[in-house]
Design a protein that fits this description.
Two copies of one chain form a homodimer.
Chain A: H1 22-42, H2 45-52, H3 56-62, H4 66-89, H5 95-106, E1 115-116, E2 119-120, H6 121-131, H7 141-146, H8 151-167, H9 174-194, H10 207-223
Antiparallel strand pairs in A: 1-2
Helix pairs in contact in A: 1-2, 1-6, 2-3, 4-5, 4-6, 4-8, 5-8, 5-10, 8-9, 9-10
The first copy, chain A, binds a DNA duplex through helix 3.
Organism (chains A, B): Sphingobacterium litopenaei
InterPro entries (chains A, B): Homeodomain-like_sf, HTH_TetR
Keywords (chains A, B): DNA-binding
Chain lengths: ~220, ~220
Amino acid sequence: MEFLIQFKLNDHLYLRDPELSDIGRSIVRESINLIYEIGFEKFTFRKLALHIKTTETTIYRYFSSKHKLLIYILSWYWNYLELVCKFQLQRESDSKNKLKLILEIVTYNYPYGLEIKGYNMQRLHEIVISESSKSYLVKDVDDINEELVFSPLKSLCSFISEVILEINPKFDYPKSLASTLIETAHQQQFFSAHLPSLTDNKNKELHKEYVLAYLNSLAFSVIK
Amino acid sequence: MEFLIQFKLNDHLYLRDPELSDIGRSIVRESINLIYEIGFEKFTFRKLALHIKTTETTIYRYFSSKHKLLIYILSWYWNYLELVCKFQLQRESDSKNKLKLILEIVTYNYPYGLEIKGYNMQRLHEIVISESSKSYLVKDVDDINEELVFSPLKSLCSFISEVILEINPKFDYPKSLASTLIETAHQQQFFSAHLPSLTDNKNKELHKEYVLAYLNSLAFSVIK
DNA sequence: TTCTTTTTGATAGTAACACTATCATTTTTA
DNA sequence: TAAAAATGATAGTGTTACTATCAAAAAGAA
């Protein structure tokens, strides 16, 4: 599957395409490790430059800001996830089973490659849980949305909504349910791990398993 | 109802209680206006100080950081919301109607006072939509959670979960559903306004009305 | 190979941010 | 009216988020 992973990401996300050089790829790879380690707020280009033994200047030649870099990473993730969904769904003809598979993929409750293109996928998923909403919860969301930087997320959401409509063509909220399922998958994992009293997970571990069960219960009773 | 609004907020949120002085109250009041206007990222104590004609020093004597100030404001909001819920639910004995009322209150689709204690409630609600997740999506969430700064949100969530259990005592996920409903109420309003293709709202306005209808559909089919 | 272009590095600089410290002044309260 | 508390004024520190400039290195073309 590895060989498939080559997306053309939106031009507005970078100044120089990081896929096309070693240093560019290491910027993306190590920013995943560093954001995972210290969180997006404390993450700076200065720290990243020290980490990969280059300079701030060079990083700024690839990304105009750390916010754009975050959106880049997340876009890559959404593209990747949609690809995994489509790949896995080929084998399945039953719509309900399709959605079950999607929910597993979205909660990241599956044992695929730990590394893809040198990106640590566990860490990337943790970043998605903790930082993804920061990509759009900004004052200039409308401006950057015009640059189509959120289209990978929209595309994934649209794909999921179609599966929902396969199950029940009369369902009124396929897209809202799709976005709710994606976001709830992350949010409830975060709550289960850090604010467990906002969930019903008795277990102090097995966050993904709990969330997956919850999402299935949610999705299938709503769509009916 | 005005006279009821007096909460004792968690000591850890402030250095000096802002409720006890004019300058403290204006810090809270004007931070709502300023965060609403420029967003939490661009909001600084320096700008706030200029805005209310005081000094950074003075603001730092009330709040140790802008992040704590955000949690303070949000805690106040959660307390307020739980109070409104309890007040409104007195009149209602049917559990399903109770939940309907809660969903209206949580989406803020009701015409209560525009100002309470000088706080602009419309703006406060917009802040909750755009900024509330930033209060907990931080690396030191576990540390600050130990200071119990998130208890107002937990309390509201717990309250809602009890109403859910009234409707169906056998429902397995009352707390997760409660937190999902609260968070989805905000998230879908944001999506409807800024990333509408993540929702099914055809209308370019009436975000609250759309979200409320969606939440009702969601909640009652899940609880069954 | 040499020449040219592209990429990177090194260094410097700016305005703003997130604080902390000190001390004088004003306001409140006992 | 004296003591205590709150505020203001000013300064300073280390960091962040960039931008600018110019030299050095690497890559590609002739």
